[in-house]
Specification:
By secondary structure, the protein is α/β, with parallel strands linked by helices. The protein contains seven helices and ten strands.
Length: about 325
């Protein structure tokens, strides 16, 4: 009788089979990818920059009916201070499924001064599991699928799979190499929002990349390699300022999803301006106090991700 728990190697050795934990987890959440985007969604490959991304902006209204977002999936990379609050904000707005990826564990420092969504009773738990418990407790109509893995440990094919089943992807990780990889892999597949805090959470930014319509992350940052990205780790900041950046990111994500679900144009902003700077206090870019500044990022000639060649599949 063949024992399926063991594997015989060519050299005659016998080892015990160990299932890949990532493959096992992903197998639990099989999704019909043909049903991810409803008929009203626009086709990225036909988007020439003259339709959804460049229609006149109507800032007088926001998403009028969040029921259009029911059943949508969002991929959130990172369950730290910003990522956790982004998930909580999204869960409060619609009946969403949130695919949450993070390998970290809740520490005592994460539970102080409202810096994160986590509670002292959750110390030593995986962040993704703790976030699932809190969000589904407070918002029973939403669903969180936890993936306790480092984004860099996800094979390309699995990261792409997760992105394809989601209406938008939100990057809330502070690993420069991982951000660079996410940009290269996902730019042509799905809208990605890169949210990041600045020193002391006094300000923040969100960079939105739309396939075939906007500049990619590397062009928006005007950088040539991940080593040039400056990241902050464990940066102290007022919890309310962190939440403000997360709420803005969640709102932008909802606008994108609503436009895709209904075919209506973006109403909150002109999508050609895909860099958002959020000031939480008076500073040079916002001398009158808290506010929002938008600007357009331009594709750089020869960019391997979002130039004409890169946007049609030659992503490296």
């Amino acid at each position: 009788m063949n024992d399926k728990s063991t594997i015989k190697l060519p050299n005659g050795r016998v080892i015990r089979h160990r299932a890949d934990p990532l493959a096992t987890m992903l197998a639990q959440y099989t999704v019909d990818e043909s049903a991810i985007l409803p008929p009203g969604d626009y086709d990225h490959k036909k988007n020439t920059g003259t339709d959804l991304a460049r229609r006149p902006s109507d800032r007088s209204s926001t998403v009028p009916d969040t029921r259009a977002l029911d059943g949508k999936s969002v991929l959130v990379l990172g369950a730290g201070a910003v990522g956790g609050y982004v998930c909580r904000s999204l869960a409060a707005l619609a009946c969403l499924t949130l695919h949450l990826v993070d390998f970290d564990i809740v520490d005592v420092k994460h539970t102080r001064a409202g810096r994160t969504i986590y509670l002292p009773s959750q110390v030593s738990q995986k962040k993704v599991v703790a976030a699932k418990d809190l969000i589904e407790r407070d918002h029973p109509d939403s669903r969180v699928i936890p993936y306790p893995f480092n984004v860099m440990d996800l094979p390309d094919i699995e990261l792409v799979r997760l992105a394809r089943r989601s209406a938008v992807t939100i990057n809330a990780i502070d690993d420069a190499t991982a951000m660079w990889r996410v940009n290269a892999l996902l730019y042509s597949l799905v809208e990605v929002l890169y949210v990041a805090l600045h020193r002391g959470a006094e300000s923040a930014h969100v960079i939105v990349t739309v396939p075939y319509a906007t500049a990619c992350l590397r062009c928006a940052l005007e950088l040539d390699g991940p080593e040039q990205i400056q990241t902050l780790h464990g940066e102290p900041g007022l919890g309310l300022d962190i939440q403000n950046a997360a709420n803005w990111c969640a709102t932008l994500a909802c606008e994108l999803m609503y436009a895709k679900a209904t075919g209506h144009p973006i109403r909150r902003w002109d999508l050609t301006k895909n860099i958002f700077f959020f000031a939480n206090k008076s500073q040079p870019l916002s001398p009158d106090g808290p506010g929002v500044r938008m600007q357009q990022a331009h594709r750089r000639p020869g960019c391997p991700v979002c130039s004409t060649a890169g946007a049609h599949g030659n992503v490296v």
